[in-house]
Design brief:
By secondary structure, this protein is mostly helical. It has one domain. The longest helix is centred in the C-terminal third of the chain and has 42 residues.
């Protein structure tokens, strides 16, 4: 696999993951209803009762909030929109990875910031630690393709610099 192909494949994977994770913020209530129904159709309530309770608790709160205050969902609509917009920014490195390496660096910083943000806001909002770990996994797993892409771009940058030096020397 060529260097350019490797870079593009990892970036496309990251774009898809970012966009999908954002788009799932739109239909939260139907998603939670489905997850709860699936969990209750399995041995999960016996195996992981606290987890099932949490899913049901969040589902019920979301249903109640949407019934009484539907405008509150506007916040998660903006969250979804932001994910999609950030995903679009990663088209820059698809087109010119060396020139747009800053986008990859920004993504790595954002992934790293997920961990303290989750720990701080999760504690303030009373989110169970297991759920915080799930949220932190987005940063942990998200940084992997970005680190790979960053290293490959830096290698490509060095190769192009070496080639340019050789061309200049022969001129």
């Amino acid at each position: 696999m060529s260097t350019d192909t490797k870079i593009r494949a990892w970036i496309v994977l990251f774009i898809i993951g970012l966009a999908v994770s954002g788009l799932t913020a739109f239909p939260l209530e139907p998603e939670l209803r489905l997850v709860s129904a699936v969990l209750h159709a399995t041995p999960a309530p016996t195996i992981a009762p606290d987890f099932v309770w949490w899913i049901d608790h969040v589902r019920d709160a979301l249903i109640d909030t949407n019934n009484k205050y539907p405008f509150m969902a506007y916040g998660t609509d903006w969250l979804a929109f932001a994910h999609v917009m950030i995903a679009i920014v990663f088209v820059g490195p698809l087109r010119d990875p060396i020139r747009n390496i800053w986008v990859i660096q920004f993504g790595m910083i954002a992934c790293a910031c997920v961990i303290p943000a989750t720990l701080i806001t999760g504690a303030v909002r009373g989110i169970p630690i297991v759920w915080q770990l799930i949220d932190m996994s987005f940063g942990v797993f998200g940084i992997i393709p970005l680190l790979i892409v960053y290293r490959v771009i830096r290698k490509l940058e060095r190769e192009k610099a070496t080639t340019a030096d050789l061309v200049a020397a022969w001129s």
